[in-house]
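input
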Amino acid sequence: MFRKCITMLVCALGAAATANADNLITVWDATGTFNLDQFARSVEITSDGVFKIQATGDHDGLGEIWSITVAYYVTGTVEVYILRRPEEGGGPGAYDVRLLNLSGDATTVIQECRVTHDLATDGNVDADELAGPMEVGHAIGHDIEVTGFTGTIECNSMRNLSVAGSSSPETTITIHGAYADTIYVNGPLG
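output
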């Protein structure tokens, strides 16, 4: 009886590890430090720097990222890209990114965010600046809260956009479907 319990436990643990093996998060060309937890599908940025993140998996080759955050003690500038490596064809870097919260003491910039399905289903997108393209194949599930907006947004549906600072003349927002509420910009938009 004792051997059967141990065998079943090992088999159960092996199945859990195998179930997660189809989703692999990679941080490439990083110039700073980070904690990567494959099981929790999360990236916690622990220093200033540039971080290019992708997830591969079984959604047409792309995987899920459940959380990208910046540790509360980080200062300096943090730049985040969610995209696929150029040598792998470039383009979208994840199927879903559930939480993209870069709030804290660091100056945080979303340089590029390319997701084929959903973004922000577990909380707001929060950063100091949205500088590059944010292309989401389906929906942006929660609000986008930034201080500066010099990039572009393209999606099928989204919630609120709040820009506390200003935007650039090149700023564009393209929503191919439903829009939930308000766009608030404290300054000129485009």
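quick obs: The chain has one helix and 19 strands.
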